[in-house]
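Known limitations

Structure tokens in this collection are predictions and should be treated as such. Users comparing against experimental data should check residue numbering before alignment. To illustrate the layout, the record for Bifunctional protein FolD is reproduced below. The input appears on top and the generated tokens appear beneath it.
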Amino acid sequence: MTAKLIDGKAVSQKIKVQVKERVEKLAQHGIIPGLAVVLVGENSASLTYVKNKKKTCEALGMRSDLHQFPDTLTEQELLAKIDQLNQDPQIHGILVQLPLPKQIDEFKVISAISPEKDVDGFHPISVGNMMIGKDAFLPCTPHGIMELLSHYGIDPSGKHAVVIGRSNIVGKPIGQLLLQKDATVTYCHSKTKDLASFTAQADILIAAIGRAKFIDHTFIKPGAVIIDVGMNRDENGKLCGDVDFEDVQEKAGFVTPVPGGVGPMTIAMLMGNTLESAEKGLSKTK
Ligand SMILES: Nc1nc(=O)c2c([nH]1)NC[C@@H]1CN(c3ccc(C(=O)N[C@@H](CCC(=O)O)C(=O)O)cc3)C=[N+]21
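Generated tokens:
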């Protein structure tokens, strides 16, 4: 048996077609969803992602403004910029690309974004509402993963989901979203003893570790659903995940590739959140 591919690229395309149709409907009311992306300092990776977001926005008929600053930007200057974007009626979503330079407190910056424009879903109010199952912008990568599971008819209910990694933007929220779909959730992390004894129980394994090809067939049980959130570079500098994609093929039931799995879904869900924010703005004016 070889693992079925979870094709994030194809699913993200489907989502983007739906977004585009809804953007066209909004345009009839004179509203163009606007996403402001703030980039402080620049490394090639963040520039790629930011350009990716801008290109996708414009392909869907949305507006994307890039605000780029040197890495010497002060926290006060960034907070002032966010305040200005919060007030701008043309801007429906604000994304401040992480990580930020060390002189800037990330929590302060994220908390300064108006929750109505928090299309990353990182704001404490978004996180709090997500935790208690209330309406909120969901963080894009976890939300994209849930969309992939649903698209492939993988119902988390009653399944044992094992999450490796406990970051605020992926590990912690994806566990909560799986719990809300009645999975039994185990969180593993760098201090977990005998990691394989947990991952080998996983019906659904979420790898968000940050170590290239760390998860091979010895860590998983036959038929497991493997979701690879990793974004690493292998020995040849090629983008690869936390999972050894080739090595798990014979044993896994489903597996996402890197690239072409969770990454494109992150972008698609960001577009959806920005559109939703603009639609909420319309319903408020009605
Ligand atoms: N406030 C904030 N929000 C973010 O959502 C955010 C961030 N900061 N900082 C950086 C990370 C990274 N990130 C990615 C999004 C898409 C791909 C993506 O599309 N990856 C493609 C490959 C792209 C390539 O070729 O490099 C794929 O996996 O198929 C990757 C990474 C969002 N991030």
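For this record: The chain is about 40% helix and 15% strand. The chain has a mean pLDDT of 96. Please report discrepancies through the issue tracker.
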